[in-house]
Write a structure and sequence with these properties.
Blueprint: H1 2-13, H2 18-25, H3 29-43, H4 50-65
Helix pairs in contact: 1-2
Amino acid sequence: MNELLKTLYVFLQCGGNLECSMKELSISMSGLRYRIKKLEELLSCQIRNPKSAFQLYASFETLLKAKMITIG
């Protein structure tokens, strides 16, 4: 599960850019697309939607600052 959290965080940090995310995570494009699809199914939202992405990123930053989660 931590792998999916890291994927989501990196994807959001890269502004939804697949190439940037792929390089940061050192995974293949097909692997990244699989993870994004899995995340969208688990979260029941489109993480490529700017409004959803902003809400998710803000939530991540809040949880990280409160030390409630770690990405690593």
